[in-house]
Amino acid sequence: MTQTTMIPPEKLFAQVLDPTSRANPYPLYARLREKPISVQEDGTYVVSTYREISLLLHDPRISSDERKGTHPARTQTETAASATPAFIFTDPPEHTRLRRLLMHQFTPQRIADMQEYIEQTVNALLDARKQEKQLDVVQDFAYPLPVMVICRLLGVPPEDEPRFRGWSSALVRTLDPTESLSEAEIQQAMQSRTQLLEYMKQLSEARRARPQNDLFSALVAGDDPDGRLSDPDRLATMQLLLIAGHETTVNLITNSMLTLLRHPDVFDRLRRNPDLMIPAVEEVLRYEPPVQFRTRTTLTDIPIAGVTIPKGARVVLLLASGSRDPARFVDPDRFWPERDDNEHLGFGGGDHYCVGAPLARREVVPALKALTRRLQAPRLVTDPPPYRRNAALRGPEHLQIAFDHISD
Ligand code: HEM
Q: What number does the ligand 1 atom closest to the CA of 106 have?
């Protein structure tokens, strides 16, 4: 990476997006925090401090609807993501209604009921590697898990999972408006979207005819007093659950394992006291979060921290920087699961706070408990590991771990 101190402030975010910064973007965030809000060369406003990010996450004058922006980044996401935007890309009152109709069925009980299946799946994935002395945490473990879980939750039959996995990987990158996809990648995403929608339509019909005890059937039946999701809205919502919950969960498992292996003292404490895994995962969400930033559009001029962000501007909320802000967290660059004040921004905040947070926690905590308990003498093969290109959904492409053996 170029010496961070040499980079002019208006070029810092371009350097964040540069793949050479992926392994460690945190010194760049520290530079950005010298001013809470900085305008970049292309007119983007980057917000890097905890206080200002929190204020804007709760500010109705800022929009998640890319159709309201004037900046060029909108087209790629909009075309590739969906013709009917999923509710992550909408504002109140539309957002409030769509989110509520989902939450009426995506209940804590439905998530709690997944516990046994999650534990079985985690152990089966490790059992499959028992003859080996090395595994790739991403490909062999973290990548399959969330798709298997979401398929089970929605009610997608296990034999269709491989197809689901392919569509999900092609679509997930369209969630990042800063990533420039090639024409071929956009085509592939569009094709995956069409196939996924077609598949979901057929599943809707099947569940309408013969309801089962799954989320898909519940949403098709729609016994909510506020009405039912229309067919296009339901399909967009299902697609959103699949793609918003996939790579994020993969990255949380992988970032956690990487961080734990870099901190052998914490690793040892976790083996002795597995209950510490709950705060340890929260600490990873602060320290190495899967979602580094989200983008928004201003609906009006917004004066904040001595700057006026003009109407129609693209705003980057640098969540990962806010969670490392020394004005908010004691010793923010220290990985410290026992910290007692950890209101991180890993799941966002305000109206769009992650709806999948309870499910993600229920997946990632058992996954890491199993990895730390069953892998004997685990060590990193390469540090830093190779990273994916995506700067917003940040995580390793592979994470090779060597070990003596996998216990029962
Ligand atoms: C570790 C895993 C996860 C992380 C770090 C994560 C992070 C986030 C963040 C930061 C947001 C806020 C987006 C914004 O403000 O624009 C968000 C929203 C969302 N997440 Fe997650 N997420 C995770 C897992 C999941 C899972 C498992 C699901 C679904 C099964 C899910 C579904 C969603 C949805 C639907 C939204 C949009 C909420 C809205 O716009 O109201 N996420 N997530």
A: 30
Q: How would you label 245-265 residue by residue, b for 16+ Cβ within 10 Å and e otherwise? A: bbbbbbbbbbbbbbbbbebee
**Which runs of E-coded beta strand occur in 105-169?**
134-136
How many other C-beta atoms lie within 10 A of the C-beta of residue 350?
Answer: 14
Distance from the Cα of residue 138 to its chain's centroid: 15
Whether residue 97 is predicted with pLDDT greater than 60 in this model: the reply is yes
Residue 139 is classified by DSSP as: I
What is residue 161's predicted lDDT score, i.e. its pLDDT? 86
Residue 175 has pLDDT above 70, yes or no: no
| Total domains, the chain | 1
In angstroms, what is the span from residue 129 Cα to ligand 1's centroid? 30
How many C-beta neighbours within 10 Å does residue 178 have? 19
Atom of ligand 1 nearest to the CA of 90: 40
Which residues span the domain enclosing 157?
4-406
pLDDT for residue 73: 47
Ligand 1 pocket residues where CB is under 6 Å: 64, 87-88, 99, 150, 240-241, 244-245, 248-249, 252, 290-291, 294, 346-348, 352, 354-356, 359-360
Which residues have C-beta within 8 Å of that of residue 370, sequence separation ≥ 6?
119, 122, 123, 126
CATH of the domain at 380: 1.10.630.10
**Nearest CA residue ID for atom 4, ligand 1:** 248
Percentage of the residues of the chain whose pLDDT score is greater than 70: 93
Pairing of strands 314-317, 45-47: parallel
Note the pLDDT of residue 79.
42
pLDDT-derived band at 166, boundaries 50, 70, 90? confident
Q: Is the pLDDT of residue 2 over 60?
A: no
88 Cα to the center of ligand 1, angstroms = 9
pLDDT at 165 over 70: yes
**Distance from the CA of 272 to the center of ligand 1, in angstroms?**
31
Alpha carbon of 376 to ligand 1 centroid (Å): 33
> What is the largest distance, in Å, between two alpha-carbon atoms of the chain?
64
Model pLDDT for residues 349-372, shown as the tens digit of each residue: 999 999 999 999 999 999 999 999
Q: Is the pLDDT of residue 147 over 60?
A: yes
Atom 7 of ligand 1: nearest residue by CA position: 347
- The protein residue whose alpha carbon is closest to atom 12 in ligand 1 is 348
